[in-house]
Amino acid sequence: MAKSAKKETPLMQQYNSIKVKYPGALLLFRVGDFYETFGEDAVKAAGILGIVLTKRGNGSESETALAGFPHHSLETYLPKLVRAGQRVAICDQLEDPKTTKTIVKRGVTELVTPGVSYGDNIVQQKSNNYLASVFFDKNLAGVAFLDISTGEFLVAQGGMGYIDKLLQGFKPTEIIMGKRQHKAFEEQFGDNFYTYTLDEWPYTGDYAMETLLKHFEVKSMKGFGIDRLPLGIVAAGVALHYLNETEHRNLQHISNISRIEEDRYMWLDRFTIRNFELIDSANEHAVTLADVLDQTSSPMGARLLKRWMVMPLKDEKSIVERLDVVDYLYTHKGLRDDLVREIKQVGDLERLISKIGLQKANPREIIQLKRALHAIEKLKELTNDADAEALKIIAEQLNPCILIRERIEMQLNPEPPVSINKGKVMADGVNEELDKLRRVAYGGKDYLLEIQKREAEATGISSLKIAFNNVFGYYLEVTNAHKDKVPPEWVRKQTLVNAERYITEELKEYEEQILGAEEKIQALETRLYNELLSAIAEYIKPIQLNAQLVARLDVLLNFAVIAEKNYYVKPEINQGNAIDIKGGRHPVIEQNLPVGEDYITNDVFLDNETQQVIIITGPNMVGKSALLRQTGLIVLMAQMGSFVPAKEAKIGLVDKIFTRVGASDNLSSGESTFMVEMNETASIMNNLSERSLVLLDEIGRGTSTYDGISIAWAIAEFLHNHPTARAKTLFATHYHELNELTNSFSRIKNYNVSVKEVSDKVIFLRKLVPGGSEHSFGIHVAKLAGMPPKLLQRANEILKRLEQERTGGERIKDSMKKIQKQAYQLQMFSIDDPILVKIRDMLNNLDVNTLTPVEALMKLDEIQRLLKN
Fold this sequence. Notes:
Oligomer: single chain
CATH topology of the largest domain: Rossmann fold
CATH superfamily of the largest domain: P-loop containing nucleotide triphosphate hydrolases
Strand content: 15-25%
Low-confidence stretches: 664-670, 819-830
Largest sheet: 7 strands, mixed
Distance between the termini: 85 Å
CATH class of the largest domain: Alpha Beta
Radius of gyration: 38 Å
Number of helices: 29
């Protein structure tokens, strides 16, 4: 016989009917003053939040796990759930429990996911929170990036390499795709992203296009410049569909959609973004370029700076415009300080206006909007008075929105509470009915004092007082000494030890008036506040434009501030094919040097005619990798529009920067260091252009010496002899054999990072000088690392023997066999060991013929003690 189904309470029936509509989401179910979770959700919530896990209906058939928290703690607990990768459905009570005799109507009011979040406690202030939507078709893909917290909506279409680069640069917190495409996505882009799959139907037919047309209220997407991106349009339409599915329907702040113009930005592949440590680093506590360059005055400026970092420009005119503004601000410190002060007053206008669009802004945030609009009026004046055309263009577009600002000033209390439910949000004089109700509700003290005074005089009860409690409202309290003076029409309600409490008809009427007024006040204030929000929403577009202009101004100001602080210079950008850096420095390393230590600067010159490929040799730890990175970062910073850490820099526009720097094992995917290295290098060789900058560090070290030298040699040849693209290349290597390349190839030059040998010590000068290096000084590096002295001594012996054998033309393998055979003799009497030298000298100085047995034993003891030390 089948087991009978669990008996469900009406509450659990309601819960289960809602839960089934949101598969995969953790449901927060509002019950009275608490958000409750049940069953598996409760187990998850208790584990993530550290709250108590209990049971409902303990021991009964309907027993279920239970975990909850007070509703006012939602802002504390929700971020923790979302950051733990949970999709959270918030189910609220949709009616006042007082108005119904049956179970309260409930429904999901919002579904919060990692990529669909706007709460201040969830999204990072200085980073965008992008939802990415991806759609494939054969070898092409469309991608849309949407940040609900700022209203930004971007779309692109291209090959898998381009989409991969965008995903690495934008770093979405959630990526959505059709269920059938999930496997293909992981094969192309890996499994390091938070992904969510949707049913296939939104991807079919014209649904996505219709969704976009309806949202933007247009007849075609031509005006947005994305009409020729069919895959991008599908991805963008599904992104909007997903917001609707997550109960986000007030999306008027998503007022524009833009194409990411591939031909406008420098190509930084995924490896370059990672190797340069632009935004973040795989190394714990590492300082990134963003850490060094970001002294912006607003969160929206910080977000734009990161966008500029992963998308440097390659259009000379646009770069020069940015650099000229930075130059002007650099030389006008007074103006710079004034602008910074006002931008700090603006705050995060971008996210604030998005909250207004979502109808989620609280009264204090509206006051912040008022402050921001005042600051924008001041910014407009300051930029208009500046003697720089680019600043005047910003001034022309800034809109202080004076009408709506004045309405906020007139209608809202200057210091309102955070919540509309707290009252005193709308100012006096805004609404006649509201003022009248307030006089009843809040002018009560005077009225009560008047009743108290009148009744005390009429009855002769001098100690009479009026008070209030939740049990029976307002009452008159009379001490026992005067209770015989109480009039018969007073109704006794409570007897205390020393007093009696009474109510009167007049007090009951007044109480009903007050309590009714408070409810009416809340309803009226809520209506008036929502009307104000709707009025502000009409200004979303101009305020969003203000936010974009202020963010741009903030980043350019930031570049001027950083340039002065860190002694950067204005680079010269040109259409030539040369990169000429004099006195270049690494922007991050120089900020982390020990106090008092100067950064050793270096010159780098690369062009397509005379010095296309530089082979850099020199020992490890000497700074070859730093030199490669600093060259790439100087070019990148210049094309962002920033000044650069150098004495002088002339940059012929670069369209792509490729790097193969440092080991990057991918063992979890079954790939060796060498395989990863070859994949990355192959990607570079297959995507070269005439204006590319290629930075290669220690290619081929993951395989045998001869294989490594052969591969490195062939790569250098390939770069030099490429028929269409003379890519400028810095090639750091420990294979000194590559120095021979310069004899056969006219545009390959040898340089080395110099060292100085003083007796047995090596001083790393970190200076790039012409010519190849013959030694790697690896043993000296091992000594600095703290290797045991005996190990270092043995390594020196092997090195000397190998060098001798190699000069005699013998193979390394044969040399090693000989060295192994002679190992014991070498270990016993190596004349390089100072202890053994001392023992040898002692033995040579002994006169065995005159030595007594006791003296011999003493000498042996002395030798033994020497060896032990």
